[in-house]
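Sequence in, structure out. Go.
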Amino acid sequence: MIKKVFLRSLLLLGMVALMAGCTDLFEKVIVDDAALVGKWYALDNKTEFWRFNADGSGLTWDESDDVYEHDENVPRFNWTTRIDQIRIDIYGQMGQHVYYDWTVTRQTADSLTFEDYYGNSRTFVKTSL
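Output:
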């Protein structure tokens, strides 16, 4: 009898521990690629723009640096998503490679909040301009 109670308690404790370890999975945002497509500006810097194209390519520019969307030398990038992650790969004109890994913490049709590798949080807003 005591052995059965002990085994049931151990089984219950194991199930609780297993479920506690899985809660992080249920709290993650699943990035919606279709909602990501479009032109976004940074809420903390309204002159910084990112445009995500449906084919996984994109552009980024900052108008305060006198760089605009249709400029010939605007930086281009490729993007991919995986669960709650966005990976940005930027290749410069001189062959340099810069990448960003963002963890999305909130995504709606017109806003995107993420954390970078260092834990800095940023929010972007979709624009139709």
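Check: Residues 27-127 form a domain with the Lipocalin fold (CATH 2.40.128.370). The chain has a mean pLDDT of 86.
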